[in-house]
Design a protein that fits this description.
The complex is a heterodimer. Chain A is an alpha+beta fold. Chain A has helices at 55-67, 169-186, 228-249, 297-305, 311-322, 326-334, 337-350, 353-371, 382-393, 399-412, 416-422, 430-443, 445-452, 459-469, 475-488; strands spanning 5-16, 53-54, 71-72, 75-76, 79-82, 92-95, 102-109, 119-130, 134-136, 145-149, 156-162, 198-210, 213-216, 220-225, 259-264, 269-272, 285-286, 293-294. Classes of the chains: A alpha+beta, B mainly alpha. The interface between A and B is large, with 56 and 35 residues.
């Protein structure tokens, strides 16, 4: 049943950039250091200190904005966003207000399962700012004080603001997955949500169908979502809650101030938080401590050249060159560049993209998971695995036994040929197969009668018997011969 | 242009300043004079003047991404009114 409303979602993503040092001072950005050991006069806001922009941070930000198809401003500046909070030592955050370094880009999303159509999600802007510190309060212990760690204060953050272009929780999740994959391929952020390298806030409202046309409900900002799955669930929950509120109050956009709600991952609900201050209350003004940045066409084209092959282009190449389906190219590309390179080599060596894709996705990826390793630590080179695929292609071995050989190859480091020889695997002649089938057909009249009455699956019993007599038989070929012979009876 | 008492009240709230009623009157008058003084710039015709984002005609000042020593923790915490030798301690911050 279609719902009497459209869901409108826009996302604000903050990613920490992978620099060694902070945005305006040379303290380390490394996660997990003892509290307050990575700070200096600049990032804890001592009077008389001056910030200096990290060149690498700006470079990574520019690279990301170019990859997001953004327009790059030729002139950009930084502003002070004033608010009081204990984890913000200067009393203002250095951010970008009216002249962000990039704006008006897009990111294309799709669903390998085709639950929504491919679409471009607009990017309003991406700007470079500094992170705040962290405050902790142990409510259980009933401590009177909150504890502040300023290690994170001043870490470079890229804020990426999307247009409200997403129409479902699923699209929101797809956008985040694609964005994270892009950032990972660009190598600009590690995107680790547990460590806070990637954080998501969502803006959501509904366009409700009414007799007088579509009516927009008040926008709510949702925070505190600690995984993409949490974003998906929070958006599903919020859409339902908005519709209930609409039915009770008929409040429209503009009737009430924008509300902020926090997602409770355990209770599966959102809860109201403080009212958002109006943006004028931040009293932005240009930071006199920092000079503007001008970006030349040459710098933009240099950034463009540094992008490398991005996920969307890579998926298309795998589909076109190696004949695999979008679902498979998505799994491979999402698994990272290393795995894609492994697949491409295997596909080229074996000349069969689908076979290579199956083996990489199932057996190779499973082994990597089990051994908790990356592809560059994987024992079998594509040439070694290809030897096994060739044996399958030649009909020398069936997939089931090939799996056993694969496991032994991974365990022992022996070649496919060596393992097959040790296990006594050899190709069974066609004439030998036919003879075996005739023997079994003669000995099992009841099963043959079943097959003839249309129960093809009864042939499975004969194949089982055949494998007992000779484990080297290829069950696929055996089935064909049995059905063929019975058909001629 | 002069400031209203309500405007000064709002600014003092945003700046976390607690002003008495008498101080609020005094600030309203003094800040109003400052704003009026700056306002005199509006008399100039700036139609042909390009807006500037900074007083210095300098741009693109960067530092390289090279690690330098941070402060010793004891030194960083030294000026804090309250700390526990690891963290700054502040009155309870609850929620977002």
């Amino acid at each position: 049943m279609t719902k009497p409303y459209t869901i409108i979602i826009g996302l604000e993503v903050h990613v920490q950039l992978l620099t060694r040092t902070k945005l305006f001072c040379r303290c380390s950005t490394k996660f997990g250091a003892p509290p307050n050991t990575q700070t200096c006069q600049v990032c804890i806001g001592m009077p008389g200190t001056l910030p200096v922009m990290n060149r690498e941070a700006f470079k990574l930000a520019l690279k990301t904005a170019v990859a997001l198809n953004c327009e790059i401003a030729d002139f950009t500046k930084w502003d002070r966003k004033q608010y009081y909070y204990p984890d913000l030592p200067k009393g203002y955050q250095i951010s970008q207000y009216d002249l962000p370094f990039s704006h008006d880009g897009w990111l294309e999303i799709g669903d390998p399962k085709d639950r929504f159509e491919r679409k471009k999600i607009g990017i309003i802007r991406a700007h470079l700012e500094e992170d705040a510190g962290k405050s902790m309060h142990d409510e259980v212990a009933g401590q009177a004080d909150s504890r502040i760690d300023l290690n994170r204060a001043g870490t470079p953050l890229l804020e990426i603001v999307s247009q409200p272009d997403m129409r479902s929780a699923l699209e929101a999740k797809a956008y985040l997955s694609e964005l994270k994959l892009l950032l990972t391929y660009l190598g600009v952020s590690d995107c680790n949500m547990q460590e806070g390298s990637l954080r998501v806030d969502a803006n959501i409202n509904l366009h409700v169908d009414t007799p007088e046309g579509k009516v927009a409900t008040p926008i709510v900002e949702v925070k505190n979502m600690n995984s993409f799955r949490a974003v998906e669930r929070a958006m599903e929950y919020e859409a339902g809650r908005h519709y209930q509120v609409w039915q009770q109050t008929h409040q429209r956009l503009g009737d009430v101030p924008k509300q902020t709600r926090g997602w409770d991952d355990v209770a599966n609900v959102t809860r109201g938080q403080r009212h958002k201050e109006e943006s004028s209350d931040y009293r932005y003004f240009p930071d006199p401590d920092l000079v503007p940045v001008c970006v030349s066409e040459a710098q933009i084209s240099e950034a463009r050249k540094s992008l490398g092959e991005l996920p969307a282009a890579l998926r298309t190449r795998l589909e076109n060159t190696h004949g695999i389906k979008p679902y498979d190219s998505d799994v491979l590309v999402s698994a990272g560049r290393g795995l894609v390179d492994y697949f491409v080599e295997l596909a080229e060596l074996s000349g069969d993209g689908k076979l290579a894709s199956n083996w990489v996705q199932q057996d190779v990826m499973r082994t990597l998971n089990e051994q908790k390793i990356e592809i560059d630590q994987f024992r079998l080179q594509p040439t070694q695995l290809c030897e096994l695929l060739k044996a399958i292609q030649d009909g020398q071995i069936d997939t089931g036994r090939a799996r056993e050989v694969f496991i032994e190859m991974v365990a022992s480091g022996k070649s496919a040929g060596e393992v097959m020889e040790a296990q006594g695997i050899e190709k069974v002649d066609e004439s030998e197969l036919v003879e075996l089938c005739q023997e079994l057909i003669a000995a099992n009249p009841k099963i043959v009668a079943d097959i003839r009455s249309g129960k093809q699956q009864a042939a499975g019993n004969l194949i089982g018997q055949a494998k007992k007599k000779n484990p080297n038989v290829n069950p696929g070929r055996l089935r064909e011969i049995v059905l063929d012979l019975v058909g001629k009876m | 242009m002069s400031l209203t008492r309500e405007e000064v009240e709002k600014v003092s709230l945003l700046g976390r300043l607690q002003l008495t009623s008498a101080e609020l009157d005094l600030m309203t008058a003094q800040m109003g004079q400052i704003v009026a003084y700056v306002e005199s710039l509006a008399e100039l015709n700036t139609a042909d003047v390009e807006p500037m984002a900074h007083a210095l005609d300098v741009s693109n000042v960067f530092a390289s991404d090279e690690l330098r020593p941070s402060l010793e923790r004891a030194a960083a915490l030294a000026n804090a009114p309250h700390h526990d030798r690891e963290f700054y301690l502040v009155p309870a911050v609850l929620g977002e």
